[in-house]
Amino acid sequence: MFISASIWEGTWASNGTGADWAKAPFQAHYQEFEINGCEYGTTDCSAANATFWWNKRQKWALNPRQQRSYDNVKAKYLYYDYCQEKGTAFKECQLNH
Prior knowledge:
This protein has 97 residues and is mostly loops. It has one helix at 64-77. It has one domain. It contains one helix and no strands.
């Protein structure tokens, strides 16, 4: 398995403060990174399959403390949300966020 990323020219979404290309090459380092998942759209990963920790009832919603933390981070750091653009049709934008 591998993780790939891209850096895109996003000045249109960041009030003119896009990537500073003079600081390239850009690097990211991870330690003790673990990810669990399965292929999107497979029945093995359906919400009805309680085998996976993310399908357990306690993971269906944030508890009040988690919700406050999420709202705080979102208020402080979310600069742009393309899902709020008029006419957005991306699948991930159909989720509650």
